[in-house]
Amino acid sequence: MSLRINDVVPNFTAQSSDGEINFHDWIGDSYAILFSHPKDFTPVCTTEFGAVAQLNDEWAKRNTKVIGISVDGVEEHLKWKDDIESFSGARAGFPIVADNDLTVSKLYDMLPAEAYLPDGRTPADSATVRSVFIISPEKKLLLSMTYPMTVGRNFAEILRALDALQATAGKPIATPANWVPGEDIIVALSVSDEDAAKTYDGFDIKLPYLRTAKQPK
């Protein structure tokens, strides 16, 4: 299936480094970030898992659970976690889903239905399994990104995007390019100038269709 923004993400039950997980139940009332990898014990992915582990406190502040997925088994995941923690100096306390049968990778449209893992495979055989999905407590897809093998993901940017999603949730506002928390937001076109004057402590008309205001508390 092809996943689009605001779709309810597919549920699945799978084994992980923390035991069996039912994905929707595991999310509960939290935001969730699912980030996928083509193979354990690979250099770029090890740095990425380390970056996620170093942000443990930041995810918790934002009521967000993180979960990795790699197309290897639980035993490999548990051994790989030792390397991740040794490299990053941070505890990798999040689960890693074992997707050695590619069920989840195909369910989330990261691999074609006919894909399989050949004997003696390399990460190139599952290269597209380098995606990030940010999911709402309502289990809806809010954002997705897919990276090539050679480019490590920027989890500071993923954290920034999560902040923007949470700041705008249910509000008639948007965030401009490069926005970080505390900076001015964009007032939605659905809000009249009169209503904007009542709602915001001053707003600035940059262009007839571009109005900014201080971020609501």
Low-pLDDT sequence parts: none
Number of strands: 11
Order of strands, widest sheet: 5-4-3-6-7
Question: Biggest sheet, in brief?
Answer: 5 strands, mixed
Describe, in plain words, how this protein is organized in 3D.
- There is one protein chain.
- The chain has 7 helices and 11 strands.
- Helix 4 links the parallel strand 4 (64-70) and strand 5 (96-98).
- Helices cover 29% and strands 23% of the residues.
- It has 217 residues and is of the alpha+beta class.
- The relative contact order is 0.16.
Quick summary of this structure?
This protein has seven helices and eleven strands.
Descriptive key words:
217 residues; alpha+beta; 4-stranded antiparallel sheet; 7 helices; 29% helix; 23% strand; elongated
What is the secondary structure topology, with strand pairs?
Blueprint: E1 13-16, E2 19-22, H1 23-27, E3 31-37, H2 43-54, H3 56-61, E4 64-70, H4 74-88, E5 96-98, H5 103-107, E6 131-135, E7 141-146, H6 155-168, E8 173-174, E9 185-187, H7 193-199, E10 203-207, E11 210-213
Parallel strand pairs: 3-4, 4-5
Antiparallel strand pairs: 1-2, 3-6, 6-7, 8-9, 9-11, 10-11
